[in-house]
Amino acid sequence: MEQLKTTSKRPNTDRLPSIYSLQFEELQDWLMEQNEPKFRAGQIFDWLYKKRVTDFEEMSNLSKELREKLSNSFILTNLKIVTRQESSDGTVKFLFELHDGYSIETVVMRHDYGNSVCVTTQVGCRLGCTFCASTLGGLKRNLEAGEIVAQVLESQRAMDEVEERVSSVVVMGIGEPFDNYDELVPFLKTINHEKGLNIGARHITVSTSGVVPKIYKFADEKLQINFAISLHAPTTEIRSKLMPVNRAWPLPKLMDSIRYYIETTGRRVTFEYGLFGGVNDQEEHAEQLADLIKGVKCHVNLIPVNYVLERDYVRTPKNQIFAFEKVLKKRNVNVTIRREQGHDIDAACGQLRAKERKEETR
């Protein structure tokens, strides 16, 4: 499967592009093509990301002619709320409907240090991880950069109601971000831009299941964004059973790409390790994991898995989770156990979509 390439399932191009897909410099270029001054880009970004307007007509310091040009050239992506679930711990999960009827999930998580938004990059996923609800029904299409940006904007509008701010973003929702790389990077640059949502690079995290060629490419971007790997296994044999992507790019090749990333950027990586009862959660697996990442500048995040009706995996008992953590600490591995959030709602990624939109996930 080495020949696996980034999906060609592109966003719908039969409609006007989302203005949220434009990076600041691209908007400046467009304005110059329209014989408009470049400084208007700053005004437009202010309306889009600071005032968060929903209609070009609201941009009152722009000429009527420019507002018409914007309306004739772009859309302001609108996400319709199908379902909103709120957990007792403050976690909010949205099921949004897109313009073509497909649906995606976005989650707002409240922490002591601020509010974090988990965004989706694809409608469905083609990588087929055997524990994940997101891959049920396969991949329908990629999201435009603007549709990913819109998830953060809609989350911020929800936070506006309680006078709070989105302070961080994690790209860990439905889909494999690196399978939609060309839309992912503009999204990251827009939300990070000082005139955009101005979310600091160190407050943005991208997670991949291991699309090795794109890890090298991402390293060369030299973004100061946090980088996470969905590892979930200490050996190639176990990982291939859990994650078919490992058959395309086996664990040794993945580790080589991670070392390249660290050498190129100087940044550490986070290994996300979901614990599945009787599969990868024994102390011997912890020893194997410590051997695998020895000498790698990293952090391990242990994840007690959420139960997914359509999957057969069971949660690791708490005492076993602590025993696994103890082995890693003894081996001088920087490790934490992820705090559970949204346990009383459809917490697992893709779970709400699977329940509410069965026609999409069959």
Automatic annotation (TrEMBL):
Keywords: 4Fe-4S, Cytoplasm, Disulfide bond, Iron, Iron-sulfur, Metal-binding, Methyltransferase, rRNA processing, S-adenosyl-L-methionine, Transferase, tRNA processing. It holds the Pfam family RlmN_N. One of its GO terms (cellular component) is cytoplasm. One of its GO terms (biological process) is tRNA methylation. Residues 111-344 form the Radical SAM core domain. It catalyses: adenosine(37) in tRNA + 2 reduced [2Fe-2S]-[ferredoxin] + 2 S-adenosyl-L-methionine = 2-methyladenosine(37) in tRNA + 5'-deoxyadenosine + L-methionine + 2 oxidized [2Fe-2S]-[ferredoxin] + S-adenosyl-L-homocysteine; adenosine(2503) in 23S rRNA + 2 reduced [2Fe-2S]-[ferredoxin] + 2 S-adenosyl-L-methionine = 2-methyladenosine(2503) in 23S rRNA + 5'-deoxyadenosine + L-methionine + 2 oxidized [2Fe-2S]-[ferredoxin] + S-adenosyl-L-homocysteine. S-adenosyl-L-methionine binds at residues 175-176, 207, 230-232, 306. This is Probable dual-specificity RNA methyltransferase RlmN.
